[in-house]
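Example with several molecule types.
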Amino acid sequence: MEQNNRKAWLYLLPAMLFLGVFLVYPLIDVCVYSLEEGYNFASQTYWGLGLYNYAYVLRDPYFLQALKNTFILVIITVPVSTGLALLISLGLSSIRRLQELYQTIYFLPYVTNTLAVGLVFMILFKQTPYTDGLVNQVLSWFGAGPIDFIDGPYWAKMLVLCVYTVWVVMPFKILILTGALASVDRTYYNAAKVDGTPGWRIFTRITLPMISPTVFYLVITGFIGAFKAYSDVVALFGTDLNAAGMNTIVGYIYDMLYGTSGGYPSYASAAAIVLFAIVLTITCVNLLVSKKHVHY
Amino acid sequence: MDYETLKKNARHRRRAGKALTYCLLTVWALVVLFPFYWMVLTSVKSYGAYNSEWIPQLYTLEPTLENYVQAFTTVPLAGYFINTVIFALATTALMLLVTIPAAFAFARLQFRGRDVVFTLFLSLMMIPSELVVITNYVTITDLDLRNSFPGLILPSVASVFYIYLLKENFAQIPDELYYAAKVDGTSDLKYLLKVMIPICKPTIITITILKIIECWNSYVWPRLITDDQAYYLVSNGIQEIRENGFGRENTPAMMAAVVAVCLPLVILFLIFRRKIMAGVARGGVKG
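Resulting C-alpha coordinates for the full complex:
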Protein backbone atom coordinates (compact mmCIF):
# COMPACT_ATOMS: atom_id res chain seq x y z
CA MET A 1 0.00 0.00 0.00
CA GLU A 2 2.71 2.46 0.98
CA GLN A 3 4.57 1.91 -2.27
CA ASN A 4 1.35 2.07 -4.25
CA ASN A 5 0.63 5.41 -2.62
CA ARG A 6 3.88 6.90 -3.78
CA LYS A 7 3.47 5.47 -7.26
CA ALA A 8 -0.03 6.90 -7.62
CA TRP A 9 1.14 10.38 -6.69
CA LEU A 10 3.95 10.02 -9.18
CA TYR A 11 1.41 9.33 -11.94
CA LEU A 12 -0.61 12.31 -10.81
CA LEU A 13 2.37 14.62 -10.49
CA PRO A 14 2.47 16.08 -14.03
CA ALA A 15 -1.25 16.85 -14.01
CA MET A 16 -1.05 18.39 -10.55
CA LEU A 17 1.95 20.49 -11.54
CA PHE A 18 0.25 21.93 -14.59
CA LEU A 19 -3.10 22.46 -12.88
CA GLY A 20 -1.44 23.89 -9.80
CA VAL A 21 0.66 26.43 -11.62
CA PHE A 22 -1.83 27.47 -14.30
CA LEU A 23 -5.19 26.97 -12.61
CA VAL A 24 -5.14 26.82 -8.80
CA TYR A 25 -2.44 29.39 -8.09
CA PRO A 26 -3.96 31.92 -10.55
CA LEU A 27 -7.35 31.45 -8.92
CA ILE A 28 -6.00 32.53 -5.55
CA ASP A 29 -3.78 35.15 -7.07
CA VAL A 30 -6.59 36.83 -8.98
CA CYS A 31 -8.49 37.39 -5.74
CA VAL A 32 -5.39 38.96 -4.20
CA TYR A 33 -4.82 41.14 -7.27
CA SER A 34 -8.36 42.42 -7.19
CA LEU A 35 -7.81 43.70 -3.64
CA GLU A 36 -4.45 45.39 -4.18
CA GLU A 37 -5.06 49.07 -4.70
CA GLY A 38 -2.92 51.10 -7.05
CA TYR A 39 -0.89 48.12 -8.25
CA ASN A 40 1.92 49.12 -10.56
CA PHE A 41 2.78 46.53 -13.17
CA ALA A 42 6.32 47.81 -13.77
CA SER A 43 7.50 48.11 -10.18
CA GLN A 44 5.14 45.40 -8.85
CA THR A 45 4.18 47.56 -5.87
CA TYR A 46 0.85 48.64 -4.46
CA TRP A 47 -0.21 51.00 -1.75
CA GLY A 48 -2.96 49.26 0.09
CA LEU A 49 -5.63 46.64 0.33
CA GLY A 50 -9.31 47.31 -0.20
CA LEU A 51 -12.25 47.33 -2.49
CA TYR A 52 -11.21 50.35 -4.55
CA ASN A 53 -10.69 48.29 -7.74
CA TYR A 54 -14.25 47.01 -7.58
CA ALA A 55 -15.57 50.52 -7.00
CA TYR A 56 -13.57 51.78 -9.97
CA VAL A 57 -14.71 49.01 -12.30
CA LEU A 58 -18.36 49.28 -11.30
CA ARG A 59 -18.30 53.01 -12.00
CA ASP A 60 -16.34 52.80 -15.25
CA PRO A 61 -18.70 53.74 -18.11
CA TYR A 62 -16.89 51.27 -20.39
CA PHE A 63 -17.60 48.47 -17.94
CA LEU A 64 -21.24 49.48 -17.63
CA GLN A 65 -21.50 49.53 -21.42
CA ALA A 66 -19.91 46.08 -21.57
CA LEU A 67 -22.29 44.84 -18.89
CA LYS A 68 -25.28 46.15 -20.81
CA ASN A 69 -24.10 44.65 -24.10
CA THR A 70 -23.46 41.28 -22.51
CA PHE A 71 -26.85 41.20 -20.81
CA ILE A 72 -28.70 42.10 -24.01
CA LEU A 73 -26.74 39.44 -25.90
CA VAL A 74 -27.52 36.80 -23.26
CA ILE A 75 -31.22 37.64 -22.97
CA ILE A 76 -31.76 37.51 -26.72
CA THR A 77 -29.54 34.65 -27.84
CA VAL A 78 -30.16 32.05 -25.14
CA PRO A 79 -33.96 31.74 -25.62
CA VAL A 80 -33.78 32.17 -29.39
CA SER A 81 -31.06 29.60 -29.94
CA THR A 82 -32.56 27.08 -27.50
CA GLY A 83 -36.02 27.38 -29.06
CA LEU A 84 -34.71 27.18 -32.60
CA ALA A 85 -32.49 24.22 -31.74
CA LEU A 86 -35.47 22.45 -30.18
CA LEU A 87 -37.55 23.01 -33.31
CA ILE A 88 -34.79 21.77 -35.60
CA SER A 89 -33.99 18.77 -33.42
CA LEU A 90 -37.66 17.77 -33.36
CA GLY A 91 -37.73 17.95 -37.14
CA LEU A 92 -34.46 16.09 -37.38
CA SER A 93 -35.58 13.24 -35.14
CA SER A 94 -38.85 12.80 -37.03
CA ILE A 95 -37.19 11.99 -40.36
CA ARG A 96 -35.11 9.04 -41.37
CA ARG A 97 -33.91 9.78 -44.88
CA LEU A 98 -31.01 12.26 -45.12
CA GLN A 99 -30.89 12.55 -41.34
CA GLU A 100 -27.17 11.98 -41.15
CA LEU A 101 -26.45 14.47 -43.92
CA TYR A 102 -28.40 17.18 -42.14
CA GLN A 103 -26.72 16.33 -38.85
CA THR A 104 -23.29 16.65 -40.41
CA ILE A 105 -24.12 19.99 -42.01
CA TYR A 106 -25.57 21.38 -38.81
CA PHE A 107 -22.47 20.51 -36.85
CA LEU A 108 -20.08 22.19 -39.25
CA PRO A 109 -19.93 25.62 -37.53
CA TYR A 110 -18.68 23.93 -34.36
CA VAL A 111 -15.37 22.93 -35.91
CA THR A 112 -14.67 26.13 -37.78
CA ASN A 113 -12.63 29.03 -36.55
CA THR A 114 -14.96 31.59 -34.94
CA LEU A 115 -12.82 34.48 -36.11
CA ALA A 116 -12.60 33.28 -39.67
CA VAL A 117 -16.33 32.79 -40.17
CA GLY A 118 -16.97 36.01 -38.27
CA LEU A 119 -15.16 37.81 -41.08
CA VAL A 120 -17.56 36.29 -43.59
CA PHE A 121 -20.51 37.56 -41.55
CA MET A 122 -18.91 40.96 -41.41
CA ILE A 123 -18.62 41.02 -45.19
CA LEU A 124 -22.21 39.89 -45.66
CA PHE A 125 -23.48 42.71 -43.46
CA LYS A 126 -20.93 45.44 -44.07
CA GLN A 127 -21.54 48.55 -46.14
CA THR A 128 -18.51 49.75 -48.10
CA PRO A 129 -18.04 52.44 -50.75
CA TYR A 130 -18.12 49.68 -53.37
CA THR A 131 -21.20 47.77 -52.29
CA ASP A 132 -23.98 47.79 -49.74
CA GLY A 133 -23.37 44.12 -49.01
CA LEU A 134 -25.58 41.14 -49.62
CA VAL A 135 -27.86 41.59 -46.60
CA ASN A 136 -28.64 45.17 -47.54
CA GLN A 137 -29.30 43.99 -51.07
CA VAL A 138 -31.90 41.56 -49.76
CA LEU A 139 -33.36 44.29 -47.52
CA SER A 140 -33.71 46.62 -50.50
CA TRP A 141 -36.03 44.10 -52.20
CA PHE A 142 -38.39 44.72 -49.30
CA GLY A 143 -37.94 48.46 -49.58
CA ALA A 144 -35.79 48.74 -46.46
CA GLY A 145 -32.97 51.24 -46.71
CA PRO A 146 -29.31 50.31 -46.52
CA ILE A 147 -28.12 50.07 -42.94
CA ASP A 148 -24.49 49.89 -41.93
CA PHE A 149 -24.61 46.89 -39.63
CA ILE A 150 -20.93 47.02 -38.69
CA ASP A 151 -20.26 50.72 -38.09
CA GLY A 152 -23.83 51.96 -37.90
CA PRO A 153 -26.48 52.31 -35.20
CA TYR A 154 -26.25 50.37 -31.96
CA TRP A 155 -29.27 48.13 -32.52
CA ALA A 156 -27.98 47.10 -35.96
CA LYS A 157 -24.63 46.06 -34.52
CA MET A 158 -26.37 44.20 -31.73
CA LEU A 159 -28.56 42.43 -34.28
CA VAL A 160 -25.57 41.17 -36.26
CA LEU A 161 -23.88 40.03 -33.08
CA CYS A 162 -26.98 38.12 -31.98
CA VAL A 163 -27.43 36.51 -35.40
CA TYR A 164 -23.80 35.42 -35.47
CA THR A 165 -23.88 34.17 -31.88
CA VAL A 166 -26.97 32.06 -32.56
CA TRP A 167 -25.33 30.66 -35.69
CA VAL A 168 -22.23 29.73 -33.67
CA VAL A 169 -23.97 28.07 -30.70
CA MET A 170 -26.59 26.08 -32.65
CA PRO A 171 -24.42 23.03 -33.52
CA PHE A 172 -23.79 22.12 -29.89
CA LYS A 173 -27.44 22.58 -28.92
CA ILE A 174 -28.79 20.60 -31.87
CA LEU A 175 -26.35 17.76 -31.22
CA ILE A 176 -27.26 17.49 -27.55
CA LEU A 177 -31.02 17.82 -28.11
CA THR A 178 -31.10 15.25 -30.93
CA GLY A 179 -29.34 12.83 -28.60
CA ALA A 180 -31.86 13.51 -25.84
CA LEU A 181 -34.84 13.08 -28.18
CA ALA A 182 -33.48 9.78 -29.45
CA SER A 183 -33.21 8.44 -25.91
CA VAL A 184 -36.88 9.00 -25.02
CA ASP A 185 -38.52 5.62 -24.57
CA ARG A 186 -40.69 4.76 -27.62
CA THR A 187 -43.25 3.07 -25.36
CA TYR A 188 -44.62 6.45 -24.24
CA TYR A 189 -45.25 7.49 -27.82
CA ASN A 190 -46.89 4.19 -28.68
CA ALA A 191 -49.16 4.47 -25.65
CA ALA A 192 -50.10 8.01 -26.69
CA LYS A 193 -50.82 6.79 -30.21
CA VAL A 194 -53.17 4.13 -28.89
CA ASP A 195 -55.02 6.83 -26.93
CA GLY A 196 -55.19 9.03 -30.04
CA THR A 197 -53.34 11.90 -28.35
CA PRO A 198 -52.87 14.93 -30.65
CA GLY A 199 -49.32 15.86 -31.66
CA TRP A 200 -48.90 19.06 -29.68
CA ARG A 201 -50.13 17.28 -26.56
CA ILE A 202 -47.59 14.52 -27.07
CA PHE A 203 -44.97 17.24 -27.26
CA THR A 204 -46.00 19.15 -24.12
CA ARG A 205 -46.90 16.10 -22.02
CA ILE A 206 -44.28 13.54 -23.04
CA THR A 207 -41.41 14.92 -25.08
CA LEU A 208 -40.81 18.16 -23.22
CA PRO A 209 -40.92 16.68 -19.69
CA MET A 210 -38.67 13.81 -20.78
CA ILE A 211 -36.00 16.07 -22.24
CA SER A 212 -36.39 18.89 -19.71
CA PRO A 213 -33.11 18.06 -17.91
CA THR A 214 -31.27 18.43 -21.23
CA VAL A 215 -33.03 21.68 -22.13
CA PHE A 216 -32.16 22.97 -18.72
CA TYR A 217 -28.52 21.93 -19.13
CA LEU A 218 -28.41 23.77 -22.44
CA VAL A 219 -29.92 26.90 -20.92
CA ILE A 220 -27.26 26.95 -18.20
CA THR A 221 -24.35 26.30 -20.56
CA GLY A 222 -25.91 28.83 -22.95
CA PHE A 223 -26.01 31.47 -20.23
CA ILE A 224 -22.43 30.79 -19.23
CA GLY A 225 -21.20 30.75 -22.81
CA ALA A 226 -23.00 33.95 -23.78
CA PHE A 227 -21.69 35.75 -20.73
CA LYS A 228 -18.18 34.95 -21.91
CA ALA A 229 -18.73 36.21 -25.45
CA TYR A 230 -15.61 37.74 -26.85
CA SER A 231 -13.90 36.33 -29.93
CA ASP A 232 -17.02 36.44 -32.11
CA VAL A 233 -17.42 40.10 -31.17
CA VAL A 234 -13.81 40.75 -32.15
CA ALA A 235 -14.37 39.04 -35.49
CA LEU A 236 -17.27 41.34 -36.30
CA PHE A 237 -16.15 44.66 -34.89
CA GLY A 238 -12.36 44.50 -34.55
CA THR A 239 -10.19 44.68 -31.45
CA ASP A 240 -11.07 48.22 -30.44
CA LEU A 241 -14.42 47.26 -28.98
CA ASN A 242 -14.75 50.24 -26.65
CA ALA A 243 -14.65 52.60 -29.61
CA ALA A 244 -17.29 50.53 -31.38
CA GLY A 245 -19.40 50.58 -28.21
CA MET A 246 -19.70 46.81 -28.48
CA ASN A 247 -17.41 45.64 -25.70
CA THR A 248 -18.34 42.65 -23.56
CA ILE A 249 -17.32 41.85 -19.99
CA VAL A 250 -14.57 39.50 -21.14
CA GLY A 251 -13.45 42.06 -23.70
CA TYR A 252 -13.23 44.64 -20.93
CA ILE A 253 -11.06 42.28 -18.86
CA TYR A 254 -8.63 41.76 -21.71
CA ASP A 255 -8.56 45.43 -22.61
CA MET A 256 -7.64 46.26 -19.03
CA LEU A 257 -4.88 43.69 -19.10
CA TYR A 258 -3.37 44.29 -22.47
CA GLY A 259 -3.42 46.51 -25.52
CA THR A 260 -3.56 50.27 -25.79
CA SER A 261 -5.69 50.73 -22.68
CA GLY A 262 -4.02 47.86 -20.78
CA GLY A 263 -1.60 47.52 -17.91
CA TYR A 264 -4.15 47.33 -15.11
CA PRO A 265 -4.24 43.73 -13.89
CA SER A 266 -6.00 44.84 -10.68
CA TYR A 267 -8.96 46.27 -12.55
CA ALA A 268 -8.98 43.27 -14.86
CA SER A 269 -9.05 40.94 -11.83
CA ALA A 270 -11.88 42.85 -10.20
CA ALA A 271 -13.89 42.71 -13.44
CA ALA A 272 -13.16 38.98 -13.80
CA ILE A 273 -14.42 38.30 -10.30
CA VAL A 274 -17.55 40.36 -10.97
CA LEU A 275 -18.11 38.21 -14.08
CA PHE A 276 -17.59 35.03 -12.10
CA ALA A 277 -20.05 36.24 -9.45
CA ILE A 278 -22.70 37.00 -12.09
CA VAL A 279 -22.29 33.61 -13.77
CA LEU A 280 -22.39 31.81 -10.42
CA THR A 281 -25.53 33.70 -9.33
CA ILE A 282 -27.36 32.94 -12.54
CA THR A 283 -26.39 29.30 -12.39
CA CYS A 284 -27.70 29.06 -8.82
CA VAL A 285 -30.96 30.81 -9.73
CA ASN A 286 -31.34 28.43 -12.66
CA LEU A 287 -30.75 25.47 -10.38
CA LEU A 288 -33.43 26.68 -7.97
CA VAL A 289 -35.94 27.30 -10.74
CA SER A 290 -35.23 23.94 -12.31
CA LYS A 291 -35.96 22.13 -9.03
CA LYS A 292 -39.58 23.19 -9.54
CA HIS A 293 -39.93 22.65 -13.26
CA VAL A 294 -37.59 19.91 -14.35
CA HIS A 295 -38.96 16.38 -14.29
CA TYR A 296 -36.35 13.73 -13.84
CA MET B 1 -67.36 10.26 -43.58
CA ASP B 2 -66.29 6.68 -43.95
CA TYR B 3 -63.17 4.95 -42.75
CA GLU B 4 -61.39 5.16 -46.12
CA THR B 5 -61.65 8.97 -46.28
CA LEU B 6 -60.42 9.26 -42.70
CA LYS B 7 -57.39 7.17 -43.52
CA LYS B 8 -56.72 9.18 -46.67
CA ASN B 9 -56.97 12.48 -44.80
CA ALA B 10 -54.59 11.26 -42.13
CA ARG B 11 -52.13 10.19 -44.79
CA HIS B 12 -52.32 13.58 -46.51
CA ARG B 13 -51.79 15.39 -43.26
CA ARG B 14 -48.79 13.24 -42.45
CA ARG B 15 -47.32 13.84 -45.86
CA ALA B 16 -47.80 17.61 -45.52
CA GLY B 17 -46.13 17.51 -42.12
CA LYS B 18 -43.18 15.63 -43.57
CA ALA B 19 -42.82 18.14 -46.39
CA LEU B 20 -42.90 21.02 -43.92
CA THR B 21 -40.25 19.32 -41.78
CA TYR B 22 -37.95 18.85 -44.75
CA CYS B 23 -38.50 22.48 -45.74
CA LEU B 24 -37.52 23.71 -42.29
CA LEU B 25 -34.46 21.45 -42.15
CA THR B 26 -33.33 22.51 -45.60
CA VAL B 27 -33.73 26.20 -44.77
CA TRP B 28 -31.50 25.82 -41.72
CA ALA B 29 -28.99 23.76 -43.70
CA LEU B 30 -28.79 26.63 -46.20
CA VAL B 31 -28.34 29.14 -43.39
CA VAL B 32 -25.46 27.07 -42.06
CA LEU B 33 -23.84 26.47 -45.43
CA PHE B 34 -24.32 29.89 -46.96
CA PRO B 35 -21.44 31.66 -45.15
CA PHE B 36 -19.14 28.85 -46.26
CA TYR B 37 -20.35 29.15 -49.85
CA TRP B 38 -19.91 32.91 -49.75
CA MET B 39 -16.41 32.57 -48.36
CA VAL B 40 -15.31 30.18 -51.10
CA LEU B 41 -17.11 32.16 -53.80
CA THR B 42 -15.57 35.48 -52.79
CA SER B 43 -12.14 33.91 -52.57
CA VAL B 44 -12.22 32.91 -56.26
CA LYS B 45 -13.50 36.25 -57.57
CA SER B 46 -10.80 38.49 -58.91
CA TYR B 47 -10.10 41.73 -57.08
CA GLY B 48 -11.36 43.87 -59.93
CA ALA B 49 -14.49 41.82 -60.48
CA TYR B 50 -15.40 41.84 -56.80
CA ASN B 51 -15.05 45.57 -56.39
CA SER B 52 -17.03 46.39 -59.51
CA GLU B 53 -20.03 44.42 -58.25
CA TRP B 54 -22.32 46.97 -56.64
CA ILE B 55 -24.88 44.19 -56.43
CA PRO B 56 -23.08 41.10 -55.10
CA GLN B 57 -23.27 38.23 -57.57
CA LEU B 58 -24.26 34.79 -56.31
CA TYR B 59 -21.89 32.99 -58.67
CA THR B 60 -18.85 33.70 -60.79
CA LEU B 61 -18.02 32.55 -64.28
CA GLU B 62 -14.33 33.39 -64.08
CA PRO B 63 -12.90 31.71 -61.01
CA THR B 64 -9.30 32.58 -60.25
CA LEU B 65 -6.73 31.38 -57.75
CA GLU B 66 -4.76 34.63 -57.69
CA ASN B 67 -6.20 35.53 -54.29
CA TYR B 68 -4.71 32.40 -52.76
CA VAL B 69 -1.34 33.24 -54.23
CA GLN B 70 -1.67 36.71 -52.78
CA ALA B 71 -2.84 35.45 -49.38
CA PHE B 72 0.30 33.36 -49.04
CA THR B 73 2.73 35.94 -50.44
CA THR B 74 1.69 39.36 -49.07
CA VAL B 75 0.98 38.01 -45.59
CA PRO B 76 3.16 35.36 -43.88
CA LEU B 77 0.18 33.02 -43.80
CA ALA B 78 2.33 29.93 -44.30
CA GLY B 79 4.31 30.94 -41.22
CA TYR B 80 1.10 31.23 -39.19
CA PHE B 81 0.13 27.77 -40.38
CA ILE B 82 3.43 26.23 -39.32
CA ASN B 83 3.19 27.95 -35.94
CA THR B 84 -0.34 26.67 -35.40
CA VAL B 85 0.63 23.14 -36.38
CA ILE B 86 3.60 23.18 -33.98
CA PHE B 87 1.43 24.67 -31.24
CA ALA B 88 -1.43 22.20 -31.75
CA LEU B 89 0.79 19.11 -31.97
CA ALA B 90 3.03 20.02 -29.03
CA THR B 91 0.09 21.00 -26.81
CA THR B 92 -1.84 17.86 -27.68
CA ALA B 93 1.17 15.58 -27.15
CA LEU B 94 1.89 17.13 -23.76
CA MET B 95 -1.79 16.96 -22.88
CA LEU B 96 -1.78 13.21 -23.54
CA LEU B 97 1.41 12.75 -21.49
CA VAL B 98 -0.24 14.50 -18.56
CA THR B 99 -3.76 13.16 -18.94
CA ILE B 100 -3.12 9.44 -19.43
CA PRO B 101 -1.11 8.83 -16.23
CA ALA B 102 -3.51 10.94 -14.18
CA ALA B 103 -6.56 9.11 -15.53
CA PHE B 104 -4.77 5.82 -14.91
CA ALA B 105 -4.03 6.73 -11.29
CA PHE B 106 -7.63 7.70 -10.64
CA ALA B 107 -9.13 4.69 -12.40
CA ARG B 108 -6.77 1.89 -11.46
CA LEU B 109 -4.48 2.62 -8.52
CA GLN B 110 -5.58 2.47 -4.90
CA PHE B 111 -4.22 5.26 -2.77
CA ARG B 112 -5.20 7.23 0.27
CA GLY B 113 -7.35 10.27 -0.48
CA ARG B 114 -8.13 9.24 -4.04
CA ASP B 115 -11.80 10.17 -3.95
CA VAL B 116 -11.14 13.50 -2.27
CA VAL B 117 -8.46 14.42 -4.80
CA PHE B 118 -10.69 13.37 -7.69
CA THR B 119 -13.55 15.52 -6.39
CA LEU B 120 -11.16 18.45 -6.08
CA PHE B 121 -10.06 17.85 -9.66
CA LEU B 122 -13.65 17.86 -10.86
CA SER B 123 -14.44 21.07 -9.03
CA LEU B 124 -11.60 22.70 -10.98
CA MET B 125 -13.77 22.32 -14.09
CA MET B 126 -15.94 25.14 -12.79
CA ILE B 127 -13.15 27.70 -12.93
CA PRO B 128 -13.64 29.89 -15.99
CA SER B 129 -10.49 30.45 -18.01
CA GLU B 130 -11.11 34.21 -17.96
CA LEU B 131 -10.40 34.18 -14.23
CA VAL B 132 -6.98 32.57 -14.45
CA VAL B 133 -5.76 34.16 -17.65
CA ILE B 134 -4.74 37.36 -15.83
CA THR B 135 -2.26 35.67 -13.51
CA ASN B 136 -1.04 33.36 -16.27
CA TYR B 137 -0.31 36.41 -18.36
CA VAL B 138 1.72 37.89 -15.51
CA THR B 139 3.48 34.56 -14.82
CA ILE B 140 4.49 34.07 -18.44
CA THR B 141 5.60 37.69 -18.73
CA ASP B 142 7.69 37.38 -15.56
CA LEU B 143 9.30 34.18 -16.86
CA ASP B 144 10.21 36.12 -19.99
CA LEU B 145 8.33 33.63 -22.13
CA ARG B 146 6.28 36.08 -24.17
CA ASN B 147 6.61 35.49 -27.90
CA SER B 148 7.85 31.93 -27.45
CA PHE B 149 6.38 28.50 -27.95
CA PRO B 150 6.67 27.43 -24.30
CA GLY B 151 4.73 30.54 -23.33
CA LEU B 152 2.01 29.65 -25.80
CA ILE B 153 1.90 25.95 -25.00
CA LEU B 154 2.38 25.46 -21.26
CA PRO B 155 -0.80 27.13 -19.92
CA SER B 156 -2.93 25.32 -22.54
CA VAL B 157 -1.78 21.80 -21.67
CA ALA B 158 -3.78 20.59 -18.70
CA SER B 159 -7.49 19.94 -19.04
CA VAL B 160 -9.53 18.45 -16.23
CA PHE B 161 -12.32 17.49 -18.60
CA TYR B 162 -10.14 15.15 -20.64
CA ILE B 163 -8.75 13.53 -17.49
CA TYR B 164 -12.33 12.94 -16.39
CA LEU B 165 -13.37 11.56 -19.79
CA LEU B 166 -10.46 9.15 -19.97
CA LYS B 167 -10.78 8.08 -16.33
CA GLU B 168 -14.40 7.07 -16.94
CA ASN B 169 -13.31 5.00 -19.91
CA PHE B 170 -10.38 3.37 -18.08
CA ALA B 171 -12.69 2.47 -15.20
CA GLN B 172 -14.87 0.39 -17.53
CA ILE B 173 -12.06 -2.12 -18.13
CA PRO B 174 -12.84 -5.18 -15.98
CA ASP B 175 -10.71 -5.64 -12.85
CA GLU B 176 -10.07 -9.31 -13.76
CA LEU B 177 -7.76 -8.20 -16.54
CA TYR B 178 -5.66 -6.23 -14.07
CA TYR B 179 -5.46 -9.09 -11.55
CA ALA B 180 -4.52 -11.53 -14.31
CA ALA B 181 -1.75 -9.21 -15.42
CA LYS B 182 -0.58 -8.82 -11.81
CA VAL B 183 -0.42 -12.60 -11.39
CA ASP B 184 1.74 -12.76 -14.50
CA GLY B 185 4.03 -10.20 -12.89
CA THR B 186 3.18 -7.36 -15.24
CA SER B 187 4.12 -3.96 -13.88
CA ASP B 188 1.53 -1.17 -13.65
CA LEU B 189 3.25 0.87 -16.32
CA LYS B 190 3.40 -2.06 -18.70
CA TYR B 191 -0.26 -2.83 -18.02
CA LEU B 192 -1.16 0.78 -18.83
CA LEU B 193 0.83 0.79 -22.05
CA LYS B 194 0.00 -2.71 -23.31
CA VAL B 195 -3.58 -3.19 -22.15
CA MET B 196 -5.38 -0.03 -21.12
CA ILE B 197 -4.22 2.35 -23.84
CA PRO B 198 -4.99 -0.09 -26.70
CA ILE B 199 -8.45 -0.84 -25.27
CA CYS B 200 -9.26 2.84 -24.83
CA LYS B 201 -7.80 3.95 -28.12
CA PRO B 202 -11.12 5.35 -29.41
CA THR B 203 -11.46 7.71 -26.45
CA ILE B 204 -7.82 8.75 -26.72
CA ILE B 205 -8.29 9.53 -30.40
CA THR B 206 -11.41 11.54 -29.57
CA ILE B 207 -9.71 13.70 -26.96
CA THR B 208 -6.73 14.15 -29.29
CA ILE B 209 -8.96 15.49 -32.06
CA LEU B 210 -10.97 17.68 -29.71
CA LYS B 211 -7.76 19.17 -28.35
CA ILE B 212 -6.39 19.81 -31.83
CA ILE B 213 -9.60 21.62 -32.79
CA GLU B 214 -9.37 23.64 -29.59
CA CYS B 215 -5.77 24.59 -30.33
CA TRP B 216 -6.46 25.45 -33.95
CA ASN B 217 -9.23 27.84 -32.95
CA SER B 218 -7.64 29.35 -29.85
CA TYR B 219 -7.42 33.08 -30.07
CA VAL B 220 -7.43 34.83 -26.71
CA TRP B 221 -4.32 33.40 -25.11
CA PRO B 222 -2.11 33.63 -28.23
CA ARG B 223 -3.25 37.19 -28.71
CA LEU B 224 -2.28 38.14 -25.16
CA ILE B 225 1.07 36.46 -25.23
CA THR B 226 2.36 37.25 -28.72
CA ASP B 227 2.87 40.55 -30.43
CA ASP B 228 5.63 39.36 -32.72
CA GLN B 229 4.30 38.20 -36.09
CA ALA B 230 6.83 35.37 -36.08
CA TYR B 231 4.75 33.65 -33.37
CA TYR B 232 1.25 34.42 -34.60
CA LEU B 233 -1.22 31.56 -34.90
CA VAL B 234 -3.83 31.45 -37.65
CA SER B 235 -6.52 33.15 -35.53
CA ASN B 236 -4.22 36.06 -34.78
CA GLY B 237 -3.18 36.06 -38.41
CA ILE B 238 -6.83 36.40 -39.46
CA GLN B 239 -7.32 39.24 -37.01
CA GLU B 240 -4.15 40.92 -38.23
CA ILE B 241 -5.34 40.58 -41.81
CA ARG B 242 -8.69 42.07 -40.84
CA GLU B 243 -7.11 45.09 -39.20
CA ASN B 244 -4.32 45.90 -41.63
CA GLY B 245 -3.55 43.18 -44.15
CA PHE B 246 -4.06 43.48 -47.91
CA GLY B 247 -4.78 47.20 -47.60
CA ARG B 248 -8.12 46.43 -45.89
CA GLU B 249 -10.18 46.61 -49.07
CA ASN B 250 -8.96 43.43 -50.69
CA THR B 251 -11.84 41.26 -49.54
CA PRO B 252 -11.21 38.37 -51.96
CA ALA B 253 -7.66 37.88 -50.66
CA MET B 254 -8.98 38.04 -47.10
CA MET B 255 -11.53 35.34 -47.90
CA ALA B 256 -8.83 33.21 -49.50
CA ALA B 257 -6.94 33.34 -46.21
CA VAL B 258 -10.13 32.47 -44.33
CA VAL B 259 -10.78 29.45 -46.57
CA ALA B 260 -7.21 28.27 -46.07
CA VAL B 261 -7.62 28.53 -42.29
CA CYS B 262 -10.97 26.72 -42.20
CA LEU B 263 -10.13 23.94 -44.63
CA PRO B 264 -7.88 21.73 -42.44
CA LEU B 265 -10.49 21.48 -39.69
CA VAL B 266 -13.34 20.84 -42.10
CA ILE B 267 -11.34 17.96 -43.59
CA LEU B 268 -10.50 16.64 -40.13
CA PHE B 269 -14.17 16.87 -39.22
CA LEU B 270 -15.36 15.02 -42.32
CA ILE B 271 -12.90 12.19 -41.63
CA PHE B 272 -13.59 11.82 -37.89
CA ARG B 273 -17.21 13.01 -37.98
CA ARG B 274 -18.68 10.34 -35.71
CA LYS B 275 -15.88 10.44 -33.16
CA ILE B 276 -15.94 14.22 -32.90
CA MET B 277 -19.71 14.43 -32.53
CA ALA B 278 -19.79 11.62 -29.97
CA GLY B 279 -16.98 13.25 -28.00
CA VAL B 280 -18.67 16.64 -27.95
CA ALA B 281 -22.01 15.06 -27.03
CA ARG B 282 -20.37 13.59 -23.95
CA GLY B 283 -19.97 17.01 -22.44
CA GLY B 284 -17.61 18.89 -24.67
CA VAL B 285 -17.59 22.65 -24.53
CA LYS B 286 -16.58 25.10 -27.16
CA GLY B 287 -12.84 25.54 -26.75
